[in-house]
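FORM 7B: Structural annotation worksheet

SECTION A. Query
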Amino acid sequence: MKAIIFAALAGVCWGVGELFTKSVLHTGRVGPITAIAVRSTVALPVLWAAWFVAVRVLRAEPADWHRAGAPTLLKLALGSGLVAGAAAMIFFYAALHLGEISRVKPIAFALAPAVAAVLAVIVLHEPLTARKAGGVAAILLGIVLLTGR
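SECTION B. Predicted structure
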């Protein structure tokens, strides 16, 4: 249940945050790359403070993550940092700058779990259940319904 609550809170925060971002981009005085740079700059100290509390105060995460080994750290840096953190944000903010938030947001944020679910089956060998396949199909149908002309 906690996971569902946190996921819902993340969705609400992203929805509100991207509405502000779109309104900033709409002014024409701030570009998408600047918006990402400011977002990341503001977020970074908060994230490191949260890491400190999680690791040093709550002891809820491993403190020696930097010793996880080259393959794990490469996945963290390249997959999470470069692909999801940088490339995805650049593409998303460019799309947000050029398109309607009501079309861009559903495509980006609904396609992500569909792609993750399919890749989880292929790469991580997670089971492909009828429910999971139906969910991916429903997500894709939802994207078409929300964004189609």
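SECTION C. Observations
The chain is about 80% helix and 0% strand. Residues 70-98 form the longest helix (29 residues).

SECTION D. Sign-off
Analyst initials: ____
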